Amino acid sequence: MSAYRVIGRSDGVAVRAYEEGDLEAYRRWLQPEQDWHRWDGPYFPKLSSSEIDERLDRFRGRIASGEYAAESPLARAVIVMDEEPDAMVGSISWHWESEESDWRRMGLTVYDPATRGRGVGTEALRIWTDYLFAATEVVRLDYSTWSGNSRMLGVGHRLGFVEEARFRNAREVRGARYDSVVMGVLRAEWDALPVHATLA
Q1: I need a labelling partner for 183 at 20 to 30 A (CA). Which of 5, 121, 126, 161 fits?
Q2: What domains lie within the chain, and their CATH numbers?
């Protein structure tokens, strides 16, 4: 699949480290006309052409240095389908909500509209959650979304995440008001679930 390591697999979906060959696909997916922008953070401004170039330059440098392959845990990764392991269909990541208490917030985007509705987001988040709990001592993980993104809320519910916060009317999308929602899971809750990914 790649010179870089695969994080894990689950039900036809795999998560792996970024590689140089992903960057042109990533450039295409970042373009403002792509449909995923309507669902993933549509309240945030889209990147300009120069901002996309700057992001890709940073990624290229980190890939060339081996940083993205060596990080433990990886801070971001590529979502692919097992049948097309070189074709990026989405990305997944985490960032510090509070480094002092080891509180990590995850991010998930399925770019390719042809893969939506096939459980790709659910399996990618299953892999990523398993991976982060295995690779760190973190006691909780969460992600934020908005109440108009029913698919992303459904991903969390299917995986055993619970709604931990709801900020009413906090997001404006296409002229309408929606709630901001945080879905979270504790390590003990996750460990008790019956279905887990196969980690590499």
Answers
A1: 5
A2: 6-199 (3.40.630.30)
